[in-house]
Design goal:
This protein is α/β, with parallel strands linked by helices. It has 2 domains: 95 residues, Rossmann fold (3-Layer(aba) Sandwich); 150 residues, Dihydrodipicolinate Reductase, domain 2, CATH 3.30.360. It is 35% helix and 26% strand. It is built from 9 helices and 12 strands. The strands form 2 sheets. Strands 3-2-1-4-5-6 form a 6-stranded parallel beta sheet, with helices on both faces. Helix 2 links the parallel strand 2 and strand 3. The radius of gyration is 19 Å and the shape is globular. The two termini are 26 Å apart. The relative contact order is 0.16.
């Protein structure tokens, strides 16, 4: 069974997403939608795909499309979603709109396969929340802080205009999905040349000083393997570092420091754009899970 998909917004992210859909075992591009005739539609047309240049309102014949990837903006997403919902199409939201629940494929996707709209959080969240979750399922986490560093060249105008939303959305994901009681997110745009690969550091404070370090380490290794199933360039770069520290707010705690790196696949975007590659790879992984569910004869139930 092959599931047809609509790609809304064929900018650089949308074009990379199209390349990833082409590599999927169960997905195919059904239509590419934009609000004007531009390079994105030219790219899609060169690959033989149907295109629409008048926006989602011109999308009147869904055909076999069952999934839509929205790569536009938080402002445009609510309307795009309403149009897709009218046709019974499930929307995977790559914007900061967050109408649907936050989803990290290797952590909580199974809880949301009855939804018709799911949200990808942020690239920083997709990269670091799995690690916070890996620690929290082994021992309680009082506080988690992530520092995501990406190449300045891989941060478009949308990212730059929404830095506050990025940090707040990622913080919420650290708490709601990662399991930390409190969270904090920091993003750094590094202008170095040549551009750096995405790197993140994750600090977790665990009140249980007697927590089993081997159990935490094994949990992190396990979640790394799960992420690598859909993002091969994802890697924990050093073994977790454990040390006791005393903090003003939490007293004596066990601090667990984990460092990761994400290298892109280079499908359309440069390999240093691991942050964008991670979002698109997660989006495709989510779509494939929906497709597998439908192939098993289990239609969507409920919804928002």
């Amino acid at each position: 069974m092959t599931v047809k998909c609509a790609v809304i917004g064929p900018g650089n992210i949308g074009r990379d997403l199209i390349c990833k859909i082409q590599k999927s075992r169960v997905l195919d591009v059904g239509v590419v939608i934009d609000i004007h005739q531009g390079e994105g539609l030219k790219f899609a047309r060169s690959l033989g795909y149907e295109v629409i240049s008048e926006g989602v309102d011109a999308f009147q014949t869904p055909g076999d499309c069952r999934i839509a990837f929205d790569c536009t903006s938080a402002h445009a997403h609510p309307h795009n979603y309403e149009v897709m919902r009218k046709f019974g199409i499930t929307t995977i939201d790559l914007t900061p709109a967050a109408i649907g629940p936050f989803v990290v494929p290797c952590v909580n996707l199974g809880e949301h396969l009855d939804r018709d709209n799911v949200n990808l959080i942020t690239c920083g969240g997709q990269a670091t929340i799995p690690i916070v979750y890996a620690v929290s399922r082994s021992t309680p986490v009082a506080y988690a802080e992530i520092v995501a560093t990406i190449a300045s060249k891989s941060a478009g105008m949308g990212t730059r205009a929404n830095i506050d939303e990025f940090t707040e959305t990622t913080r919420k994901g650290i708490e709601l999905i990662g399991g930390a009681k409190q969270g904090k997110a920091i993003i750094i745009l590094n202008p170095a040349e040549p551009p750096i690969t995405m790197r993140s550091t994750i600090y977790t404070l665990c009140p249980d000083l007697d927590a089993q370090q081997d159990k935490i380490r094994q949990s992190i290794q396990s979640i790394e393997r799960e992420v690598r199933k859909y993002v091969p360039g994802y890697a924990v770069t050093i073994d977790p570092i454990f040390d006791e520290c005393t903090t003003k707010w939490f007293g004596k705690t066990l601090r667990v420091e984990t460092k990761i790196q994400v290298e892109g696949a280079g499908d359309y975007l440069p390999k240093y754009s691991g942050n964008l590659d991670l979002q698109n790879s997660a989006a495709v992984a989510i779509a494939e899970r929906f497709a597998d569910k439908w192939a098993a004869g289990l239609p969507n139930e409920g919804g928002l």
